[in-house]
Fold:
Amino acid sequence: MRPETEEHVAELVREARGPLAIVGGGTRGIGRPAGERLETAGLTGIRLYEPGALTLVAGAGTALAEVEATLAREGQRLPFEVPDLRGLLGREGSSTLGGVVAANASGPRRIQAGACRDSLIGVRFVDGTGTVIRNGGRVMKNVTGYDLVKLMAGSHGTLGVLTEVAFKLLPVPEAETTLALAGLSAGQAVAAMSVALGSPFEVSGAAHWPGRGTFLRIEGFAASVEYRAGRLSALLSDFAAVERVESPWPAIRDVMPFHGRDGDVWRLSVKPSDAPGLAARIGGELLFDWGGGLIWALVEPGTDLRARIAPFAGHATRLRGSDTRIPAFQPEPPPLAAIAAGLRAKFDPRGLFNPGLMA
Structure:
């Protein structure tokens, strides 16, 4: 099913007699939800774009590429640097704006600009009774229903079918430069990134790519970038020699080191200070982002990484792997699981949407 209007989505939900697998562009979904496929990619179109107000509203099925091209013509962008995971997951197709929200997809700039949910200011969606719900607004100052807007980001289609989303935007900076330090261990890299992120020099990317280097990005007005890069280089000189390099950020954003490689791929969100110790227990090949707060791991097929590194503070999500006995999402502690079940019961009382995906 591929409805082209919000009203048709609501009708299909009301008439559903069994589970529905909610799909956007099919480029970044985790797991294989059961049910009849309901695609939102027909809900297309930029409904409102006000460059002066840094605001965009679009149908949930609007192609991300179309949105990014429209914004680029006005010198603007989505703040959170959306990753393209098609190469990592072996997918094809076109990523949709609603799919980005459903996955809370956020790239290296998250450490400065926040995640997708932090730029999301409004949503429309159809709940499990077929009711259309609107929450939030079209301008940054409208915070009506703030919690519900944030709740839909990262819900992976388990609470409702997104039909429209609204974002605040940012201008594209005038200049960008990347500093690189070579030869650092995981512990040294996290220490260097922590120093950089704790400095006043407004670092917008901090990643460690073992074997390639530790990278720090600075963006802004050209004169400011030059000044801050020089000061940050001096600050980090005790760790290693600092040089300026071509941008590695698209490769880091899209986890390109693991493309076309055999093995399972896991994403761990942890305290940066815990990253070096966890790296030693994970094994496999690693990529560190968000100053060490995000670890990408490529491990042997069938590896239950949670069991290997338990106990640890944080959560681990398996994005790619064939052993269905291993849950894709981190099992929640009983109190949180009870809250999540209550939310699903409220918004999807018949259990239609992607059942079991995040349970």
Remarks:
- Residues 57 and 127 are 20 Å apart (CA to CA).
- The chain has 13 helices and 17 strands.
- The longest helix spans residues 222-236.
- The mean pLDDT is 93.
